[in-house]
Model the fold of this input.
Amino acid sequence: MTTRTIGARIPRNEDPRLLQGLGCYVDDVNPPGVLHGATLRSPQAHARIMRIDASKARRQPGVHLVVTAADLGELNQPSPLLIPHPTLTHSRTQRPLAVDEVRFVGEAVAFVVADDRYLAEDAAELIEVEYEPLPVVTELASALAPGGPRVHADVPDNRAARFRQTTGDADAAMARAHRVLSERLTIERSCGSPIEARGVVAEWDARRRTLTVWDSTQAALPIKNGLARMFGLPEFSVDVIVPDVGGGFGTKIMMFFPEEILVPHAAITLGRPVKWTEDRREHLIAANQERGQIHDVEVGIDAEGRIVALRDRFVHDAGAYTPYGIVVPIITSTQLPGPYRLRNYTVEFEVAYTNTAIVTPYRGAGRPHGAFVMERMIGLIARELGLEPAEVRRRNFIQPDEFPWDVGLTFQDGAPTRYDSGDYPAGLEMALDLIGAGDFRARQAQARRDGRYLGLGIGCYVEGTGIGPYEGAHVRVEPSGKVFVATGLTSQGQGHATTFAQIAAEALGCDPADVSVVTGDTTRFNFGAGTYASRGIVTSGSAIHKAATSVRDKALRLAANLLEVSPHDLELIDGRARVKGMPSRELTLGALATVANPIRYAYGKESSDAALRLVKPREGPVLADGEEPGLEARDYYAPPHATFASGCHAAIVEIDPATGDLKFLRYVVQHDCGTMVNPTIVEGQIRGGVAQGIGGAFYERIVYDASGQPLTGSFMDFLIPTSAEIPDIEITHLETPSPLNPLGLKGVGEAGAIPVPALVAEAIDDALAPLGVRVREMPLDPNRLRALIAAATARRS
Done:
């Protein structure tokens, strides 16, 4: 095989269709006779539902259905707990519609279906709900206080879980430490805000008793299987189709949102297609959020700044329910050590309920929290010892000859947190060289003399990727020579139609443009978990490689038999099985696919392939024992444990102390995701992640008042950076292939966002060192930064 496609900067297969406006999103799906739904949401953060009267809404012209909790009956069960954990002793999940109590502003109370969305929303406003307000808890710092308001009456002190992990003996090592430093660090809330909000369309075929659902989700197969169970249908009678998705970022991974049950219920009840599309305010108040944590951390160091022990205790805000278990804080606790040699480490966290929107993974999923804490402690060590932060990192890095490195903790997948490969010192030096750190201090000093405040920030991280349980793939060569690939996970802009095509084309020796990839369609592939946790290229990519390799082997065996040579004498190149050194003796993949289907070959039209016309009919049965028709294969890949990507970001910023404004002068990224299938797509993922990271560091913050009312219900209040705020991002790559999968792959989806808050904090500290500013929280904004400057100035005066 001489055709190389893995590692090539091939243009994305999906772009021509999308750039021509030919994409199909859930809101573009309009089956004949479709009706439209609207959700009535609670205006109260915590209240008892005393009475619901939907009679006025039901009488409105054009209204077909009004559903309250009482109308759903047994269907109105709490949604599944997706990831149980033994320490999650008080798990609570949301029902499709609230019963007795509402626990956050935006919780679904009723669902209305009408001829159009306007009529549905007008009718929803006519539903009379009598609420009796109950005490509210919104502040994470006080959520666990004994005797305070309870989000769930039967959960004492709002404590959902308490979890502890340890490696080594942190207490003993801390007692021997040269110095012990401590800090309280806070990370506030944010949310995904994809350009396409959520949406669901459902259609019920009463004659065939089949349910088809179009869903803007990251997990088609779990949704399919869950709906079959809920509605008492065979799994083969339910299909979930995920068309184009305009971003997910974790928000669309939770199963189930209320509408994913309410819309199919309405379609089955009415015998008409039903559609619901989330608006932006609904997304900002009712879709899942992430990030809220408070950390109290201690680090013990020796005289040279080497870490001898670290202890961290933190509180994690779960919001009103825990459908995703405690995955986010587990990831924080296990990813906090980052690329550093942390032999003595104890972490303990508590998970608290609050009367706010549900918290589940959002791009980074606990990793930015851990990186922020660890990198802030690196900066604190540097400040206390008068060292460069980069030098503290050098003294604490895990070295390349120490892999695999066992962190000594259990990761989110229940497997060991074991780093498979990497070169962290080399990555740091690559980033420092690219940013021009060698002469930065001289430039910084000159800028200060000119009245300008420049700062250098660095953020290092390790990212757990490629977790199980598994993914599968179906690869088939058509008689036309085109290749079909299907896999169970979904796509939200990652470029799967290109990278998956490259993996298949590499094995089959064909052009990636001849490979069609289908994702997120349960009619095409019926097993898998979904797209989350930077796992797609590792799990599905490896499964595609395995399946395509099986097809390749079958093609070579078949061609060898037909051409009367050994398979070792053949090569697959340009879509042909060719005898090495004899280009005239070859068979196209399409011809081999035709021969592999005995019925098509025996009874089809005469082949136009000249070589195929020379093939003699097969003697005996058309299928040998154990042989299957077709040039195709299915295969699966289940990783033994996570792969661990890594990277180092560096940036030079300028701060205006008078306005609190922050400007990026340069931003560079060094990244290691193992083998790169398509560097351009990797870089696109990184740039998008950095943009979200900048948003989460200096712009985007979900705010609730003391009564639990969200104050950031539109983009006027929840600020997202524009292209004017995002700098050019320079990227350099390091490839340390993973030994855990056949292609050496590691994930990249969340990498760009992980270290940005830590980097921004260090850059601000560095720029404003003459003023004594120390950043202990994220995100910031100009007003908050001015307040920190004022407070530091007051302390110094």
Observations:
- The longest strand covers residues 643-656.
- The chain has a mean pLDDT of 94.
- The CA atoms of residues 505 and 511 lie 6 Å apart.
